[in-house]
Amino acid sequence: MTLFDTRRLEVFVRTVEAGSITAAADELAYTASAVSQQLRRLEQEVGQPLLRRRSRGVVPTEAGMVLAAHARKILRQMDAAQADLDDLTAGKRGSLVIGAFPTVASSFLPLVIERFSSQYPSVSLSIRSTRIDQLVTGLERGQMHLSLLWDHPWRPFNTDGIKIEELFREPFVVLVSSHHHLSQAQDVSMSELAQESWVVRASQHPVVEVLDRAATAAGFRPVIAMYANDYQEAQAMVSAGIGVALAPQSAVTVKHPGVRVLSLGAQAPERRIMVGQREERVYSPAEVAFKASLFDTVRELWPHMLRG
């Protein structure tokens, strides 16, 4: 059985991702000749070509694509192993790194932290709020102990090596200006909003797909009036009458005074909020306690959102 050198695997993956030996060498602080030497040795170990040279760089061969996919997993696991060993060596059992995404980091998570810190004041917490793909990578590499994640019914979360537990489900709600003709209503249907202009999140934010699906089910295509950078900006524009908006309920925990929140009732789209942890490791007492604080906070705030 061939045993691959992990450093050569890293050089290979960097080269594939950079698309050139020179660029990979710059990233790794190597010379281009040193990178070429490592790649030649790896190809000798594999017994077949891994890269196809072109005038403007390199591309992986079929064998190269297969090895790159496996190598990425190996490198993530090595990073995770080092992180676990560092925890033991440095005695970091009293610290936690928590991953989150912006809407829960600005609404639900602070309440959990307050509860947890009052019960475990000696545990140091570090919070990393970012996109879901980076949260998953952080868990895989051992850079986070646990993370809050989300998914939608039409695209359930499924990543090998990540254990998930459903925390709660939250509906999407409609935001209208306090001067809107529907502002005094409690509930609204999507069909009643067919003629409205919409304020949505920018940069291909997931809420755009939620709106498209809900509008399509109601028989119309939404007209977009503005792409907002965050939900606070979206609320401000809604309050000014630029349009109406769709948002997860947690995004309006801090509500703009000029905005009214309307329910979509039983037809409301929803998303699942989950706790994710890397499998194949022993969870520290601090992790177990923090996860308990997550569920306790949901039971106190939104018992109707719990499933099971």
TrEMBL record:
<dbReference type="GO" id="GO:0003700">
    <property type="term" value="F:DNA-binding transcription factor activity"/>
</dbReference>
<dbReference type="InterPro" id="IPR036388">
    <property type="entry name" value="WH-like_DNA-bd_sf"/>
</dbReference>
<comment type="similarity">
    <text>Belongs to the LysR transcriptional regulatory family.</text>
</comment>
<keyword id="KW-0805">Transcription regulation</keyword>
<dbReference type="Pfam" id="PF00126">
    <property type="entry name" value="HTH_1"/>
</dbReference>
<keyword id="KW-0804">Transcription</keyword>
<dbReference type="GO" id="GO:0003677">
    <property type="term" value="F:DNA binding"/>
</dbReference>
<dbReference type="InterPro" id="IPR036390">
    <property type="entry name" value="WH_DNA-bd_sf"/>
</dbReference>
<dbReference type="InterPro" id="IPR005119">
    <property type="entry name" value="LysR_subst-bd"/>
</dbReference>
<dbReference type="Pfam" id="PF03466">
    <property type="entry name" value="LysR_substrate"/>
</dbReference>
<dbReference type="InterPro" id="IPR000847">
    <property type="entry name" value="LysR_HTH_N"/>
</dbReference>
<feature type="domain" description="HTH lysR-type">
    <location>
        <begin position="4"/>
        <end position="61"/>
    </location>
</feature>
<dbReference type="GO" id="GO:0032993">
    <property type="term" value="C:protein-DNA complex"/>
</dbReference>
<protein>
    <submittedName>
        <fullName>DNA-binding transcriptional LysR family regulator</fullName>
    </submittedName>
</protein>
<keyword id="KW-0238">DNA-binding</keyword>
